[in-house]
Design a protein that fits this description.
The chain is an alpha/beta fold and 263 residues long. Helices cover 46% and strands 14% of the residues. The chain is built from 9 helices and 5 strands. It has a 5-stranded mixed beta sheet, with helices on both faces. Helix 4 packs parallel to helix 7. It starts with 7 loop residues before the first helix and ends with a helix.
């Protein structure tokens, strides 16, 4: 039977790459099972009965605001779409960049930009995985965002759970200094860290659930890349969830941005 079996770990990894939102389907199934279980236990204890319509309405009302959990690959695909939309002014790194920088140092990531001049851009976006947590028996990654603006000379840290990322900011600044030294060997580039600000953004929108985390990072990048204020509502988050899945599916961002309007 050689050739008919695939290691389960490799299969799951390939499936997550091919289907960035597959995990969301699994999570929704688990949530529904949990609610159904709680509903059954409650009905056994309580005397009064509840109609099925009432229970279904409660289910919808409770979880109608849940956004899909976007996998690493899903975030990577969305970062590519952000870069493609305003290629000459914006560059969004993939999710593995910061982890490699943190674990391996500059030498572990210097080849990533061999064909990209980040200093010719005006904005950089770096999604950061800060670890994992357990919620509802699921392992969820905790995401935040670093935003570099070469025009306004700042590096900002956005975290929808309210945490600060001073060490992240320092690491990215150090990366920029090392990157300019490396690239100066081949091209005449100038980057002076003097006068730059490292900022933990305290007034960015905050998530209510840990599973909203990856969606908030994608929303931060989409809004900040076109200089839109981060004042989105629950309704806009719901709409963005649907929009994100559609855009990754069609490999194109539906919201057009005129560069002359923001630069």
């Amino acid at each position: 039977m050689l050739g008919y079996f695939v290691d389960i770990k490799l299969y799951r990894k390939a499936k997550s790459v091919a289907e960035p939102f597959a995990y969301e389907e699994y999570r929704r199934k688990k949530i529904r099972e949990k609610i159904e279980s709680e509903r059954t236990n409650r009905d056994q204890v309580q005397v009064e009965s509840r109609s099925m319509d009432s229970s279904d309405d409660q289910l919808d009302n409770t979880y109608q605001n849940i956004c899909p959990i976007v996998s690493d690959k899903g975030i990577d695909l969305y970062m590519e779409l952000i870069t493609q939309r305003i290629r000459y002014f914006v560059y969004a790194f993939k999710t593995g960049f910061y982890l490699d920088l943190y674990q391996k140092g500059y030498d572990g990531v210097k080849d990533i930009t061999n064909y990209v001049d980040i200093f010719s851009k005006r904005k950089l976006f770096i999604p950061i995985c800060m670890g994992e947590i357990k919620e509802e028996c699921l392992d969820l990654k905790v995401w935040s965002l670093v935003y570099v603006d070469f025009t306004q000379k700042f590096i900002k840290y956005y975290d929808s759970s309210g945490e600060q990322g001073t060490e992240c900011l320092k690491l990215i600044m150090n990366y920029l200094v090392q990157e300019i030294l490396e690239k100066k060997k081949r091209k005449k580039k100038v980057f002076n860290p003097n006068g730059w600000s490292l900022i933990n953004v305290k007034d960015c929108p905050q998530q209510k659930h840990h599973y909203d985390n990856s969606i908030f990072v994608c929303m931060f990048v989409e809004y900040l890349s076109r200089d839109a204020p981060l004042d989105f509502s629950k309704k806009e988050i719901q709409k963005f969830c649907e929009q994100l899945e559609e855009e990754i599916g069609i490999d194109h961002l539906t919201k057009f941005v005129q560069v002359t309007e923001i630069y």
